[in-house]
Amino acid sequence: xxxxxxxxxxxxxxxxxxxxxIVEAIQAGYRHFDCAADYGNEAAVGAALRKxxxxxxxxxxxxxxxxxxxxxxxxxxxVEEACLKSLADLGxxxxxxxxxxxxIALEHVPIAKRYPPEWIHDPDADKPVMRPAKVPLHExxxxxxxxxxxxxxxEIGVCNYNSALLHDLMNYAQIAPAVLQVEMHPYLTQDKLLxxxxxxxxxxxxxxxxxxxxxxxxxxxxxxxxxxxxxxVRAAAQAHGKTPAQVVLRWALQRGTSIIPKSSxxxxxxxxxxxxxxxxxxxxxSAITALNRNRRFNDPGEFCxxxxxxxxxxxx
Length: 316
Description:
Elements: E1 8-9, H1 18-28, E2 32-34, H2 42-54, E3 64-69, H3 76-90, E4 95-100, H4 137-150, E5 153-159, H5 163-172, E6 179-183, H6 191-199, E7 203-207, H7 231-240, H8 244-254, E8 258-259, H9 266-271, H10 282-289, H11 300-308
Parallel strand pairs: 1-2, 2-3, 3-4, 4-5, 5-6, 6-7, 7-8
Helix pairs in contact: 1-2, 2-3, 3-4, 7-8
């Protein structure tokens, strides 16, 4: 199956709430679920998937499941182990898409010791810090290719890569990445990266497509940074009889990206999927694109130093 343009993001969904939101999402029409080991809820997602399969709401073949390789498993000998752990938690035989979560290698933490291991190497240390590991990205990618050859992941790709890393990857990949997943919204349009990825034939998935909404509760964004309050967005919403969120999500689709919005609100779950009955004009798209501030909310160069005791930027 082709990856659905609109997926359901599972970052920050409480494990106790996974069954409810996944059932509601399936009933609303979602067929793509974006997971990751680091989200800490894949076992709960797996239980929810088994329920919807058992109840006949959908079959395995009708849903697209994405997961991601965490930073502590970049060494080639740990890549398959990490993938198998996600598959076991999700209750699946294969993933539709497996992504390198960050171009950041951290020292290995055994699954039996702590899972998910998150960013800090030893939380009980006197000075807890993250510990980078010397693992070249080309070695990690070669191990990802083995997953595809074994059928554990039907497609493989990357997250949070910049243009230079993408050029480099395309020079050595024997199996080209199928998808690039990056933060992308009207305050961070990443026009050149989007153009480059599409030129290479990658599908681009925009995470955090509504901007600050996902980061306010984490103190990684300010209340005044809500793109949904922008006059250009509100004017388009009024013109089309849609919500500001629907306008921003439609803008992303018309740029050629797929999106993975997340909500636990049943009304918003349905609204975020109802995007095919209207289209923004070229002027509306241009006005929203012009809101770009190059504002990145999910930036390791900021949060790693602030929370994990290591300055580790991946973007200039």
